[in-house]
Amino acid sequence: MSAAPPVFSALLFGLSGCLVDFGARTLPATMQRLYPQCRDEQIYVTATALEQQLGRMPSRDERQAFEQALSETACEHAKPTPGAMEQLQHLHQQNVPCAWIDELPCDASIALATPLPGWLAAAPNRAARAWPAPDACWQALTDLQVAQLDGCVLISGEPRLLQTGLNAGLWTIGLAACGSLCSHAPAAWQALALAERDRLRTQATLTLYRLGVHAVIDQLTELGPCLADLSARRHKGEKP
């Protein structure tokens, strides 16, 4: 008797703040390292972070220093988030095509992905249009040779990537605690008072639902039941 086909066509994961780098600290930590006067809570978009900080177009040397610092910081933050390795192993055993997506420069992305299994497909930033255009998701699914959008899911803690998934027509699962909205490294997160963690988690959850994502969990340890819920919704005829 043949095995049942996978419930989902493919799963795409964000890299920073999802599979690795709890709190998505690579970019903000790099900016603080290069420019100590910048505010930790300032929101940066990778493609425009230097312009935002400098108030002008960066020189070639400034751009090279930025990318080098990103790669160095990425090496320090290349640690799997809770549940990441277990969930990937389970999906691999189910033969579900998976890939990670990131918008950091390629060298920094590859450094962040170092602890992840070798079979996991990489989709570093090479799309023609930046997030939240849907190109990055579509390119990743093309590389995985996925034949249809139906049953494809994006999981991320980054609102701009989740908007990319929504624009691409995918199911989306937001990560409230381990993504950029809470932006705390693991030790700093655990050091917070329980009430403060709950406040930040609730605020992030509401932000993600307002964006339009289909489900929100704290981190990947909760992915299994969430996927089961999405599967039931699909079985009832719900579409993303």
- Reading the helices and strands in chain order gives EHHHHEHEHEHEHHEH
The rounded Rg comes to 18 Å
Mean pLDDT level:
92
CATH homology superfamily of the largest domain: HAD superfamily/HAD-like
- Structural class category: alpha/beta
Main pleated sheet: 6 strands, parallel
Strand content bin: 5-15%
Our count of helices gives 10
Strand count:
6
User: Could you give the order of strands across the largest sheet?
Assistant: 3-2-1-4-5-6
Any idea of the CATH topology of the largest domain?
Rossmann fold
Q: How many discrete structural domains?
A: 2
So what's the oligomer here? single chain
Rough outline: globular
In the CATH hierarchy, what is the architecture of the largest domain at level 2? 3-Layer(aba) Sandwich
Descriptive overview:
- With 240 residues, the protein is of the alpha/beta class.
- The protein folds into two domains: 10-23 and 80-235, Rossmann fold (3-Layer(aba) Sandwich), CATH 3.40.50; 27-77, no CATH class.
- It is built from ten helices and six strands.
- The chain has helices at 26-34, 49-54, 60-77, 84-93, 106-112, 135-143, 159-168, 186-191, 194-211, 223-235, and strands at 10-14, 98-101, 121-123, 152-156, 171-175, 215-217.
- It has a six-stranded parallel beta sheet with strand order 3-2-1-4-5-6, sandwiched between helices.
- The protein starts with 9 loop residues before the first strand and ends in a 5-residue tail after the last helix.
